[in-house]
């Protein structure tokens, strides 16, 4: 079985409140970017049950294999329900710590793939509960359609919302922004209007109406990321923003953008939305 876990962007991200469990309640629109994917291959093989042979290529991951979210997803499912031995290979193309959800997508797609190997496949609710144990963004990738995320991002409301025909340019300068770092200094404050209302406005108005609350703290610490956003607007983007808590900035364009020389040293990706 071969799967293509795709990236996502966050259109608007409001830090609503701090929770008693140490997490934060947020409100954001998750939007899949299907043009940028990892490649995941999973093959069931003869051998000891509940065992995995994992390999990886592409963008190198510094963590030990047991720390990889694909391996964690396998062990989580195997411990609860039992699984055959598998060989799993991940070719990594989505940068890490970038706000694009690559690791979460890999974990969610692993759960979906392994679920097919169970004698009694789990339902959507059961899978979502397992996915949340792997990461706040993981439940979204089980749905993988535009959705408003609330709570930790796991309370999902699918919305009829499309950006078909627009182009997206993703720019990642290779700066790793940890989630804890991004939240430091953030002051939760709920927006006056709901995100559902704001995304219904013309996209040309989003710059005045929508924001990613993490930009307030991350831009101060990493002005290079702020400069990328400004450059995207100078190129003609109708909307530009940091995605999630990572260092990727995306620009949405009406026509296919060219990657300027200023971005040639960075990870960049252009595709239709």
Task: Describe what you observe in this structure.
With 273 residues, this protein is an alpha+beta fold. The protein folds into two domains: 2-158, 2-Layer Sandwich (Ribosomal Protein S5, domain 2); 167-272, Alpha-Beta Plaits (2-Layer Sandwich). The chain is 28% helix and 29% strand. Strands 1-4-6-5 form a four-stranded mixed sheet. A four-stranded antiparallel sheet has the order 2-3-7-8. A four-stranded antiparallel sheet has the order 10-11-9-12, covered by helices on one side. Helix 8 crosses helix 9 (223-234). The longest helix is centred in the middle third of the chain and has 14 residues, at 102-115. The radius of gyration is 19 Å and the shape is globular.
């Amino acid at each position: 079985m071969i799967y293509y876990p795709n990236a996502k962007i966050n259109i608007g991200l409001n830090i609503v409140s701090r929770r008693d469990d140490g997490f934060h309640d947020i409100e954001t629109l998750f939007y899949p970017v299907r043009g940028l994917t990892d490649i995941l291959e999973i093959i069931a093989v003869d051998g000891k049950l509940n065992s995995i042979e994992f390999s990886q290529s592409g963008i190198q991951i510094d963590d030990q294999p047991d720390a990889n979210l694909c391996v964690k997803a396998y062990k989580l499912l195997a411990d609860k329900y039992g699984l055959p031995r598998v060989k799993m290979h991940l070719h990594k193309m989505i940068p890490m710590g970038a706000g694009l959800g690559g690791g979460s997508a890999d974990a969610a797609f692993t759960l979906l793939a392994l679920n097919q190997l169970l004698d009694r496949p789990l339902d959507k609710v059961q899978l979502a509960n397992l996915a949340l144990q792997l990461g706040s963004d993981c439940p979204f990738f089980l749905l993988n359609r535009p959705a408003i995320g609330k709570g930790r991002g796991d309370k999902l409301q699918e919305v009829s919302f499309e950006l078909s025909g627009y182009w997206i340019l993703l720019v990642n300068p290779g700066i790793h922004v940890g989630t804890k770092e991004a939240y430091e200094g953030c002051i939760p404050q709920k927006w006056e209007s709901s995100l559902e209302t704001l995304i219904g406005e013309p996209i040309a108005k989003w710059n005045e109406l929508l924001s990613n609350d993490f930009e307030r703290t991350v831009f101060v610490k990493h002005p290079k990321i702020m400069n990328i956003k400004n450059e995207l607007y100078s190129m003609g983007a109708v909307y530009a923003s940091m995605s999630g808590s990572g260092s990727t900035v995306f620009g949405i364009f009406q026509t296919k953008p060219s990657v300027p020389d200023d971005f040639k040293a960075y990870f960049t990706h252009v595709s239709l939305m």
